[in-house]
Design brief:
321 residues; Rossmann fold; 2 domains; five-stranded mixed β-sheet; four-stranded antiparallel β-sheet; 8 helices; 14 strands; 19% strand
Amino acid sequence: MARRLAEALGREGYSVWWDREILPGKSFDEIIKERLDAAQCLIVLWSKASVSSDWVRDEAAEGLRRKILVPVVIAEVEIPLGFRRVQVSNLTSWRGQRPDQEFDLLLASVAGLLGGAGKQPLDLHKDKPRPGWKRWGPIAAVLVLMACVGAYYFIKASVFRYSDQYTYAEQLVRKYNFYSTGTERWSRPNVGGFPHDFKLQGDVIQDAATGLVWQKGGSPDISFPEITGYLRTLNAERFGGRDDWRLPTLAEAWTLLSPQQTPEGRHIDRVFDPKQEWIWTSNTTKNGYGWFVFFTEGRPIFQNAWGSHGYVRAVSGPRWE
């Protein structure tokens, strides 16, 4: 539910930050306080776990005190005393559909608090640290997920326009007829996917259809700052006999998505190592957001990059845009 709501908020133009963007070594409570202090809107998801969490109640109380609290019920629970006078959106039956009366009520509450400011530029990601939904979430405001406890959405103004990134994705789909699952406007779940001619050559895979050479496997789960060192090592050691390894562009990584799934549930040709569930691309913004390609889900996702952990599948060859 948290992820679904985060995606829906993103499509409305809000940017989101969540707790898993906290860099190693950072104090959890200090960063949460910093984000809460900067927030103009706090969405709290009441679930069976969150109603019994002192941490969630404390943060919700702060949102109530500042009059920025927007409560949402996502399970059949009794809202804690002290929060029952605030109008609640009931999303227990919501599955992402639009229009929806309860979700529209939530949007109206958010818009009322932000006063139309949700799409003005403002940088909220100064200490940056998902890739994978296992650790992160995309979106447009500032979303904080309290792992297994509750979910907070800290909404402020966006540092870029999601519409520009989505338009770019649509342009790529029209240009290359890419495959993509999901409900985004560039989704093409019924196309056959990009045509390939893969040839395995030891630890690398050459695609005669694109002229690109890929790692068969890739990196372990690494953070954004570790990418440069990983690529430098590949080139210094002349991995696969090459010294021009780099991050793939979104277009290049998207060519790998396939309608067919491997036995491990990956939307990619079986010639590749299934360990890399999603991969970084070089398409990132100056504000720390970027595109990832998720083989587990069969689609690209635009989300916080600076705070992410994920996988590198390096590429060599002519650049595709």
